[in-house]
Every structure is written in structure tokens, then in C-alpha cells.
Amino acid sequence: MTRIPHEPSGEPNPLCSLTLDQLRRRTSMKWRTYPEDVLPVWVAEMDVPLAEPVVRAVTDAIALGDTGYPAGTGYAEALAAFAAERWDWDGLAVERTAIVPDVMLGVVEMLRLVTGPGDPVVVNPPVYPPFFQFVAHMDRTVAEAPLGADGRLDPGTLEETFRRAVAGGRRAAYLLCSPHNPTGTVHTAEELAAVAALAGRYGVRVVADEIHAPLVTAGARFVPYLCVPGGENGLSLMSASKGWNLAGLKAALAVAGPGAAADLARLPEEVGHGPSHVGVLAHTAALREGGAWLDALLAGLEDNRRLLVDLLAEHLPAVVCRPGEATYLVWLDCRALGLGDDPAQTFLRRGRVAVSSGLPFGTGGAGHVRLNLATPPEILQEAVRRMAAAVG
To answer: According to the model, what pLDDT value does residue 174 have?
Structure first.
């Protein structure tokens, strides 16, 4: 019998498993970018041990010497089963998937399939900074359709941006972030259907980055873009990377709707040589066997969201915090603190705490920071204490 997601899993809270001393032994970007006296609550790495099924899959592969090139459809089959269980979506067809090195490199390849050099790619700032960087690097132009004041998609702004993007017969794409990073917004089925209708009307191709899809709160529902009416012409990128902290084990899946199958079929064969075979095994194990661990993580993240709201109310009441319904990232409006456009610099210089600057997130990022709450509660408490001291 399938266990209902978000029920108590019996697993310990992964966010309470590691000490600061243990975390400082890590050699990844989060823990080695800044000096040791800085608390890092910035880049999207979680301070958790790996789920046991993932550890077992990786260590078994190493013991066997199973470190060659990726093959087969096991990853796609695991994602399809996960999607059916978690999102009630049975439309993820294995034959319309392709393994890609990671989500952002997959985004690049999907945009190459549906746009050409110089074509516009629409994004919704404030949004994940690599959206700007990767699009510019591949010789496309960014067209901003900012989120509304409520942090949600603005249909009027989106339509006007689509209209300008396709003017003169140009091709255009829309790079949708779902759930949205940095706000944690979970787009509703109605909002996504409206996006699909606009995209169909203007001939804009939708490429959805859905990497944070496993990290949705119990009170919200993630809706895959490809399952909404009109979404059949879309392309999606999915991965176990964010849900199970597997960024260093490279592997993701490109998924095509029925109307985009021919596009995905044009993906160059060599793209499939980029993912790590061990990464594919790790992601597959996470999706197949890591549900209980994920539910324990989601419960821990919900505890940390409540803790952060309380800490800010006590120590930094001028900061506006509206935790979203997904991701482990929180978008903080620090404009009332009077720290200028880049308050992250003050928090780092005076408080020795690293948060992500809002400026690279585009329009709407000035005066904001992004904080990663996927960390032990004690570290979260100390980070807010230091941030308060920095402006005290």
C-alpha cells in the first residue's frame, strides 16, 4: 500500500543530524567559498546526510566498479512512478524523456531545440540568476516579465512580453521556474493553464525548470506544466538533485509533452554522454526508495520555516518574510533596514553570515536577500542573531 506523502515517516529529521564541525569538513562550494568564521546560508546545498538508499546505490556501484557510461531507462521509470504517486500525474512517458547532464545544461539544450541565436527567452524576475547567465551565454536575449507585487505570475505582463518577443515573426521561448526560485511560489493549475493558453496564442515555446518539484509543503500541490491543458507542447527538466541534495552527482531528465516529442528527438546524441552514470544510479535510488527520507526532510523544513518567522519577528522585525510553499529558500525583503541595494554585503561584512544577494535575481532583487533554511536549527538561530547584530 502506498504511503501518503507527508505522513510521519519514522525517519529522523535530516536537518538535525550533522554538527557544525562535521559540516565544516565538507569541501563543496557552500562550505569553502567563505572563511571559516562565516556561517554559510546561501547557495542551494542542504546540510543533511544522504538518504540511505542513495548511499547504498553509490557504494554498491563503487564496490562493483560500475562507473562507466549511463544506459537504460531506469531513471525515467523511477521519475514516472514518483510523479504518479506524488503528483497524481500518469502522463510522464518514458519514451519522451532523455538523460541530460543537469537541469541547467538541459535547459540550454531545450532552448537550442526551439529557438535560434538572438531569439528572446522570457523569464520572471526575481528569478534564479543562472537563467540570465546561461541564456546570455548561448547567444539568446533575456526578456523580463516580472512577477506581480504578490510574488505570483502576472498574466497581463506575461502577455505583453510574449507579444513583444514574437514581434516581426521571431521565435521565442519562455523559461518557467516552477516552483519559483527564490520566492518558493507554487504555481496553481489555473495559472499554468493560463500560461499555456498565452504560449499557444503567441507561438511561444515553454521550457519548465521543475527541479524543486519534490520540495512542496503538505498544504500545497505541485502541478507539472506538461499536464495542464495546452501544456502538451512544452518541455520540462526534472531531477532528484534538489530534493535529495545530489548536486554533485550530475544527472537530470528532459521530459517532452506529446506535442514536443519531435523536438526532443532532435537532441544530439552526445548530450546523453554528459551525465554521470553513478549520478543516474543515485537519482534513481532517491526517487524509488527515498520517499520516507524526503518526508522527514519536508517536516524538518516546515519546522525551520516557522522558526525563521519567529526569529525574524523577534530580532529583525523590519524584514518582510513570506515563506513560500516550496523549496528550502526564503526571499527576504530587507529594504526597511536602510542597507541599500545589496544588504547581503552588510550581513557578510558585519555579521559574518553569507546569504545570497538579491541583485543577480534581476528586477525586484534590490534590497532583498535569499536565505537557505536547509540547515540545522541551531545554525539558523545563530545566522539570524548575527544578521541582527550586523544592523544593530
So the answer is: 98
